[in-house]
Amino acid sequence: QKEVEQNSGPLSVPEGAIASLNCTYSDRGSQSFFWYRQYSGKSPELIMFIYSNGDKEDGRFTAQLNKASQYVSLLIRDSQPSDSATYLCAVSNTGGFKTIFGAGTRLFVKA
Amino acid sequence: EAGVAQSPRYKIIEKRQSVAFWCNPISGHATLYWYQQILGQGPKLLIQFQNNGVVDDSQLPKDRFSAERLKGVDSTLKIQPAKLEDSAVYLCASSAPGQGTDTQYFGPGTRLTVL
Predict the structure, then answer these.
(1) Cross-chain Cβ contact B103/A4 below 8 Å
(2) Tens digit of pLDDT for each residue in A48-80?
(3) Cis ω before B81 (30° cut-off from 0)
């Protein structure tokens, strides 16, 4: 069974700190990696996607991918209370096939 | 650009009843997904359509769940008969492969409660 593993949290960080969210996956054939944010009672919304090994930065967010270690992470710099949500890691094959979501990590940013 | 539309937003039924959900994807998106999200879990892919063809339904409980996407646009997901464990949020998503990303855009979901 192909899996995506995340720590369930909650991860609690003070406002202004860096939040680090981690995800491991079991299928070495995975090609596309996504981080979604989901507020309570809402649907997931895309934060970032990454396809290649290394770092990808977008504003306060940085996604990191290491295919050899089957590991993907999300760093949130200058965390804000509005970042408090569940962060879902998703992994798929090329073309969006066989998408598997992790159970998510709950993040709480304390003001 | 209009987002993914779903209806109804909420549904409460008794076990053994049937229920249907509707989804209209973002215009031009060829790929449509139905997910089941149980409270506290990540979304679980039930079925994926490419235009009006099924490309993955390996996790769809076919004895009670069915889905169709006639004409390659909107889609319906049906449960018949419903069980208590079907209580969940049913999310529809769409994507446009070939535009450099297979990012999925989600609708607001339908929250199903089976009593």
Answers:
(1) no
(2) 999 999 999 999 999 999 999 999 999 999 999
(3) yes
